[in-house]
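Our platform keeps sequence and structure together, in a single record for each protein. Nothing more is needed to write down the fold, since each code stands for a local backbone conformation. An entry from our holdings is shown next, in its original layout:
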Amino acid sequence: MEWIEYSRLSTINTVDDFDALLKVINTSDLMEFQYLVSGDEWMVSIK
């Protein structure tokens, strides 16, 4: 793990839902990033 410049994010490999997590971090209306699991299916919930 390392700190990188925001502008370099598109040039590195990240986890599948990283864009959704960044949306929560960068949007003042959003406060929650959560995985909902149903059997083998994982869904992202953003609030």
